[in-house]
Amino acid sequence: MKLGISGVIGLAALLMAGCNNSTVAAFEKAAAELPVAEAAAKKLGLPLTGADLMPKTPVRPEDNAAPLILEAGKAYRLAGSQSRGWEQSLGQAFADPTPANLAKAQATLQPFNAALDQAVRAAAKPEVDFGHDWDSDEPWNLTFPEYSEGKNLVKGLSYRAQLRTRRGDTAGALSDLQAAAAMGRFMGSEPTLIGGLVRVAIDALVVRSMEYAITIRAGDMSFLQDLDALAAPHAAESVDMLHALRGEIVFNVTAASAPAERLLPMASGSVDEADTAGLANQADWKRRLAPAGVPESVRTEAFRARALQPWVELYADPEVRKDPMALVRRMEDLDKRLSNDPDPTLAVHQILFPVLAGAGDALVTGRARWQAVRGLMAVLRFKGAQGRYPATLAEAGFTDVDPFTGKAFHLKVEGETVRVYSVGPDGVDNGGEERVNTAPDAPRQMDIVSMFPRRVNAPPK
Question: What is the pTM for the complete model shown?
Answer without folding.
Answer: 0.88
